[in-house]
Amino acid sequence: MTFADMIEKMSPEIYTALKSGIELGRWPNGQLLTAKQKEISMEAVLRYEAQSSIPENQRVGYIEPKKKKPAATETEEESVRILEQGESGA
What we know:
Strand content: under 5%
Structural class: mainly alpha
Largest sheet: none
Shape: elongated
Number of strands: 0
Distance between the termini: 77 Å
Number of helices: 3
């Protein structure tokens, strides 16, 4: 069985356990994850999310786009005064 086959057959419960393990750094039984286990678990979680119907905003690593500020109106803009040579701005 390949890694891709395992991802296809992964249940939502296993996905949740892997995701929780990554977040907490330990398995549900309390045993610490090794660096290699974290790496493989993260890859499995990311692949599962990409293949499943999990909404994008609930996936690992999702960052909500910044809201654009409304365009400044003329009253909100600072006026700029161009100084003539020899004129001081003070």
